[in-house]
Structure formats: structure tokens, C-alpha cells
């Protein structure tokens, strides 16, 4: 997620496509206050990471508190991590469909699994 923020900023500088007029003025003039398709692709990839990684971090923290098996927890975290990396790469380099969609689905599997295990653990106290 952090790497995508850096990539987006670097692409903005390289393409001279700034979102804010003050940034454009600093880097050459108001003509650079514009949109660029690749900058927008990087920005969308970053937003997509935010929409998916933040809920995962919340689920992962709660899941860790219910005392899961360490190898199973590692598997959940590794599958999510690898799938999200693949998703980001597929987004940035516009890889053929359905690469990005499959990566998204694979990343959701550990999220659903953790959510279900959290619900089962909470239901045991009800």
C-alpha cells in the first residue's frame, strides 16, 4: 500500500500530471495541472489497496486475538499478501483479464475464513 503511494507520486512527477494547481506551478506551470491515464491507474490501484488492506488488517487483528493455530494464521496472512501483491502488479501493468479478478478472489478467501472463525468464536460466548 505504501509502495503504491510512492509509485503514484513518482509517476506524477515523471509524467508531469499534478492533481493540485500549486504542485503544477512548482513543477513547471498550470499546464501540468492535468490528468494522465497511467497516473490515474496508479491512483486507482492505491485506492483499491486501501479498500482491501485496511479491512484485512482489522480482521487479522481480531483473528489473532481468538488464538488461531500459528501455521494456519500464517497461511491466511501469506495468501492474502501474495494475492494482493499480484493484484497490484496486475493493476499497474494492465495484465490480461482475469488476472486481477482472480487475485482479488484469492485474497478474499482468507478474509472470509477469518471472519467466519471470528463469528464462531464469538458465538461460543453467546
UniProtKB/TrEMBL annotation:
Q: Does the keyword Mitochondrion apply?
A: no
Cited Pfam families = MAPEG (PF01124)
Principal localisation: cytoplasm
* GO CC annotation: membrane; perinuclear region of cytoplasm
Which pathway does the record list?
A: Lipid metabolism; prostaglandin biosynthesis
Q: How does it sit in the membrane?
A: Multi-pass membrane protein
Give the catalytic activity: (5S)-hydroperoxy-(6E,8Z,11Z,14Z)-eicosatetraenoate + 2 glutathione = (5S)-hydroxy-(6E,8Z,11Z,14Z)-eicosatetraenoate + glutathione disulfide + H2O; prostaglandin G2 = (15S)-15-hydroperoxy-prostaglandin E2; 2-glyceryl-prostaglandin H2 = 2-glyceryl-prostaglandin E2; prostaglandin H2 = prostaglandin E2
EC number(s) per entry: 2.5.1.18, 5.3.99.3
- Cofactor(s) the record lists: glutathione
Localization, per the record, is:
Cytoplasm, Perinuclear region; Membrane
Write out the GO MF terms: glutathione transferase activity; oxidoreductase activity; prostaglandin-E synthase activity
Matching entries from Gene3D superfamilies are given as: Membrane associated eicosanoid/glutathione metabolism-like domain
Gene Ontology BP terms: prostaglandin biosynthetic process
Identify the keywords attached in UniProt to this record, alphabetized: Cytoplasm, Fatty acid biosynthesis, Fatty acid metabolism, Isomerase, Lipid biosynthesis, Lipid metabolism, Membrane, Oxidoreductase, Prostaglandin biosynthesis, Prostaglandin metabolism, Transferase, Transmembrane, Transmembrane helix
State its role.
Terminal enzyme of the cyclooxygenase (COX)-2-mediated prostaglandin E2 (PGE2) biosynthetic pathway. Catalyzes the glutathione-dependent oxidoreduction of prostaglandin endoperoxide H2 (PGH2) to prostaglandin E2 (PGE2) in response to inflammatory stimuli. Plays a key role in inflammation response, fever and pain. Also catalyzes the oxidoreduction of endocannabinoids into prostaglandin glycerol esters and PGG2 into 15-hydroperoxy-PGE2.
Q: Which PANTHER family match?
A: MICROSOMAL GLUTATHIONE S-TRANSFERASE 1, PROSTAGLANDIN E SYNTHASE
State the family it belongs to: Belongs to the MAPEG family.
Name by which UniProt lists this protein: Prostaglandin E synthase
Give the species. Answer: Champsocephalus esox (pike icefish)
Amino acid at each position: 500500500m505504501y509502495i503504491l503511494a510512492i509509485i503514484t507520486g513518482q509517476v506524477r512527477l515523471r509524467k508531469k500530471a499534478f492533481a493540485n494547481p500549486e504542485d503544477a506551478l512548482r513543477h513547471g506551470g498550470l499546464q501540468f495541472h492535468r490528468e494522465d491515464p497511467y497516473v490515474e491507474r496508479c491512483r486507482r490501484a492505491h485506492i483499491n489497496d486501501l479498500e482491501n488492506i485496511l479491512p484485512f488488517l482489522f480482521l487479522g487483528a481480531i483473528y489473532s486475538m481468538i488464538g488461531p493455530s500459528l501455521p494456519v494464521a500464517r497461511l491466511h496472512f501469506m495468501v492474502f499478501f501474495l494475492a494482493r501483491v499480484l493484484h497490484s502488479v496486475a493493476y499497474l501493468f494492465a495484465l490480461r483479464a482475469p488476472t486481477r479478478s482472480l487475485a482479488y478472489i484469492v485474497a478474499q478467501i482468507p478474509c472470509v475464513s477469518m471472519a467466519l472463525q471470528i463469528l464462531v468464536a464469538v458465538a461460543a460466548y453467546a
